[in-house]
Amino acid sequence: MDKLLVYVIADYGALHDLAFAEVTQKLYAELGEVPARIETFAVPAFDTYATGFALAQTAINSELGEQHKFFVNTAPRKDDLMPRVSNSGEGFVYVRLINGVEICAVNSGYSLAFVKNFAEDIRQINCSVEGSQFRSRDIFPASFGKIMNGDLSEMGESVMDSIPEAPRDVLCYTDGYGNMKCALDVDDIMERKGQDIIVEANGQQQIVRIADGIFGVEDGQFCLSVGSSGWTDSDGQKIRFAEIVKRGGSAAAVFGNPIGGTAITWRAIH
Question: In this structure, what CATH number is given to the domain that contains residue 141?
């Protein structure tokens, strides 16, 4: 592979949104002579849980090593709820994973929580965090381009300790089928394989069958199973996620399309 593969993960809206086009062309310009192909991926607006999950699933599992780079922008500016001066927002950071993948991302919410334990270095990038409503077009691509060209002059101190741990008992990501990928204790759940439980999320309750796989129930039924997503952590621990699925339909729609970070609870039916 003679080109870098750059994944842009951002909450600009649907992939046809103009923001993706503007950021992509700016990244190509700042990369200069570095040969690269840029691919874009959308996550829901302000959803740092989905951002972090999508980043971890694609970056930790990547087999491309140093040829794979990420530019990640979900910046809800929730670190300070007071009025902002000059559109200031969360900082921009550099991450290097133990598999060689490099990431430049806004350090917001849980955007980096899932990759934290797979990272060998997380550092502040000393670039401006204000001056534009559209920092991921007007400010951050220049820093990304410098780093990809070997210029580490903006590299700052370690911010590893500022990254939260990966969340638990929450919805992390909803895929295009409406399957809800959740950070639940899958070992505990699978001990009840074949049983029905009550799952609650977003103020809604549903009877769900625990099964070996997401097709282990009849069409139209709800299923909870170990899903297709996950990775092996730096210490060799397998990280797995549970999926809530309505076979032949959308589980997310039935639960009112909950956002990332929505609490997921369940209880046995006695």
Answer: 3.40.50.10790
Q: What is the 3-state secondary structure (H, E, C) of the chain?
A: CCCEEEEEEECCCCCCCHHHHHHHHHHHHHHCCCCEEEEEEECCCCCHHHHHHHHHHHHCCCCCHHHEEEEEECCCCCCCCCCCCCCCCCCEEEEEECCCCEEEEECCCCCCCCCHHHEEEEEEECCCCCCCCCHHHHCHHHHHHHHHCCCCCCEEEECHHHCCCCCCCEEEEECCCCCEEEECCHHHHHCCCCCEEEEEECCEEEEEEECCCCCCCCCCCEEEEEEEEEEECCCCCEEEEEEEEECCCCHHHHCCCCCCCCEEEEEECC
Which residue range forms the structural domain that includes residue 257? 170-268
Q: Are residues 153 and 227 in the same domain?
A: no
CATH assignment of the domain containing 216: 2.40.30.90
The total number of structural domains that make up the chain? 2
Res. 42: pLDDT tops 60: yes
Domain endpoint, select from 133, 162, 191: 162
Summarize pLDDT for 242-257 with one digit per residue, the tens.
999 999 999 999 999 9
Q: What is the pTM of this model?
A: 0.92
